[in-house]
Amino acid sequence: MRLAEIRTLFDYDAWATDRILAGAARLTPEQFAAAPSAAMPGVRQILAHTLMAQMLWRGRFETGTSNIGVGPDDFPDVAALRRRWAEERRAMRAHLDTLADDDLDRPVRLSGGARRRRRRGGTSCSS
Question: What CA–CA distance (Å, rounded) separates 4 from 96?
């Protein structure tokens, strides 16, 4: 996978996420926060998890660390998610702007005792 393809996928992800957030904004605060059952997370938890996963992977690619410093409770409503997602998109775009196609083939070592390396292009390999 090349950088142009990653940017296209990133743009699609932003478009799709905006549509999902627009739908979530139509929910009542209670519907947004509530889990449908003890075994299933609610809309807020799912969206917060998705955002935090994006933050986590960008952090890993940039620094090799997995500390994002936020949790689901940091996103009490859709507006908070939108604000943080906009920040994350800017940070990811800035990171992508530092890369060339050849960088995608280089392994990224994960700190904290991780035994696997990740290539930015999407495949993993053992260290």
Answer: 10
All structural domains of the chain, each given as residue ranges with its CATH number in brackets, are 3-126 (1.20.120.450)
pTM comes to 0.82
pLDDT in tens, 17-52: 999 999 999 999 999 999 888 889 999 999 999 999
